[in-house]
């Protein structure tokens, strides 16, 4: 796992597919989780950092991190599984955490809790694949179709 951002062109394409895709801001950081299983296929997923996860969100749908300065009262900051999406490594870019005390702290917390994060992400994907989608979830299937058709056309 590592903190990344995604290529602006692929972000624009995925945003056009799904209104719930959170990349209206250039450079939004995500946690890249490699090789999760979705519909009998192993693939990479990116889980966005989100500073204002609504208070009503179920705890199983996010991994909490310390609040940021932009976190509103009663909201949560963390990795929001409801907004996760499939991504190929070729569309990722390094997110520079050097000199940023917040992201150095977040990276440390993530490293210490990597097994729990992977387990929560996999559980979310299993539930999603079985038809238990939460409101405001990204459309993982539409994004997969787009990414795989794009890869096939590049061959």
* Count of alpha/pi helices: 4
| Low-pLDDT residue spans | none
Distance between the termini: 27 Å
Helix content: 25-40%
Q: What characterizes the major β-sheet?
A: 7 strands, antiparallel
Question: What is Rg?
Answer: 15 Å
- Let me know the number of strands: 7
What are the secondary-structure elements, in order, as H or E? EHEEEEEEHHH
Oligomer: single chain
Proportion of beta-strand residues: 25-35%
Helix-strand category: alpha+beta
What number is the mean pLDDT?
A: 91
Shape by Cα distribution: globular
Attribute tags:
alpha+beta; 155 residues; seven-stranded antiparallel sheet; 34% helix
SSE layout and pairing:
Elements: E1 2-6, H1 8-17, E2 30-38, E3 41-53, E4 62-65, E5 76-80, E6 85-86, E7 92-94, H2 101-112, H3 114-129, H4 140-154
Antiparallel strand pairs: 1-2, 1-7, 2-3, 3-5, 3-6, 4-5
Explain what the structure shows:
- By secondary structure, the protein is an alpha+beta fold.
- 34% of the residues lie in helices and 26% in strands.
- The chain contains four helices and seven strands.
- The chain has helices at residues 8-17, 101-112, 114-129, 140-154; strands at residues 2-6, 30-38, 41-53, 62-65, 76-80, 85-86, 92-94.
- Strands 1, 2, 3, 4, 5, 6 and 7 form a seven-stranded antiparallel beta sheet that branches.
- A hairpin with a 2-residue loop joins strand 2 (30-38) and strand 3 (41-53).
- The protein is globular, with a radius of gyration of 15 Å.
- The mean pLDDT is 91.
